[in-house]
């Protein structure tokens, strides 16, 4: 798709873009308050962006994940995290499960056991935060996909 055909949704509706950005800022603030590391949130952002096929967000959040301390190994096998053995910690497994649940809300009734396990591993505050992180990045993924935001731009 050429740039001539793009509808940059953030430019077309700046108040909605600003509200989405405020949600992201609220996530970072809450993460700091409850001690959830940026690395875990970036891992959620990467997995959701993979599922949603958002190249722009993948580019951003893989780089941010590296800055936050995620290894290239973790980032390179995120799409196959269930098969990656002990590459991921128990907390990372729980966060990735929550990411997938948030990307497929119609399947939530079938994933209640997995969600309950994530709550046990992470605690309710972190599980809620990471669920909100997945919800938030889903919005960004859709906005960038519909805007045809180019990678790097």
Automatic annotation (TrEMBL):
Highest taxon, organism lineage: Bacteria
Q: Which InterPro entries match?
A: AhpD-like (IPR029032), AhpD_core (IPR004675), CMD-like (IPR003779)
Q: Name one Pfam family in it.
A: CMD
Q: In this protein, which residues make up the domain named Carboxymuconolactone decarboxylase-like?
A: 20-100
User: What Gene Ontology terms describe what this protein does at the molecular function level?
Assistant: peroxiredoxin activity
Task: Write down what this protein is called.
Answer: Carboxymuconolactone decarboxylase-like domain-containing protein
Q: What is the lineage of its organism?
A: Bacteria, Bacillati, Actinomycetota, Actinomycetes, Mycobacteriales
């Amino acid at each position: 798709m050429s740039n001539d055909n793009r509808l940059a949704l953030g430019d077309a509706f700046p108040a909605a873009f600003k509200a989405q950005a405020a949600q992201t800022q609220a996530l970072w603030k809450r993460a700091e308050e409850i001690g959830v590391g940026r690395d875990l949130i970036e891992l959620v952002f990467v997995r959701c962006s993979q599922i949603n096929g958002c190249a722009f967000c993948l580019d951003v959040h893989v780089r941010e994940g590296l800055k936050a301390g995620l290894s290239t190994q973790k980032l390179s096998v995120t799409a196959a995290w269930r098969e990656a053995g002990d590459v991921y910690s128990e907390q990372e497994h729980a966060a990735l499960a929550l990411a997938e649940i948030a990307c497929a809300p119609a399947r939530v009734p079938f994933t209640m056991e997995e969600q309950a396990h994530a709550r046990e591993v992470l605690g309710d505050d972190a599980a809620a935060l990471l669920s909100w992180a997945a919800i938030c990045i889903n919005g960004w993924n859709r906005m960038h996909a519909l805007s045809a935001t180019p990678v790097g731009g």
